[in-house]
Amino acid sequence: MSLITASRDTACARLATALPQRWAHVQGVGRRAAEAARLFSLEEAELLVAAALLHDVGYAPDLAVTGFHPVDGANYLRDQDFPARLCALVAHHSCAYREAELRNLTAEIAQWTDEQTMLRDALWWADMTTTPDGGTTNVHGRIEEIQERYGPEDLVTFFIRQAKSELVAAAERTEKALRLAGIDYTAK
Ligand SMILES: [Fe+2]
């Protein structure tokens, strides 16, 4: 079974029934990742789409251990023998270390390394340009939507405010590469 098929099956099993909106989002992020896949080798393209499909698997209620989905997801995927690089991408997706700091989970996320590559940027871009329903948006719209959804006093709002410059920078690096490659990534 290919890595993408295994990832889609795992995400579907954990999210489709328990959290259908999250499943719709995850499928949208997978489609976004597939748009950027042409920037990478075949092996890395597969890894990118697989990580996109699995990035939010840690939201599944039965996987909650720390209550912080990037870490819970990465630990679960490691236990399921997914590749270590994929687990690390999931642990660190969309600037998760910033939220880990606010949740006093720095030690838990530190077992994984943020690879800080174009592939990691593309995963962050795919997540940050996909709406909660799986539609497409841009990074600024997505950050605004998150702040509105959680409200001014929520830890997630504090996190997204702190992470904004890193999220925007990763999205801009990816979009520059997409433009240079002639790939249309505009929100549809
Ligand atoms: Fe996401």
TrEMBL record:
Signal peptide: none annotated. Residues 22-114 form the HD domain. Pfam families: HD. It comes from the Bacteria. NCBIfam families: HDIG (TIGR00277). This is HD domain-containing protein.
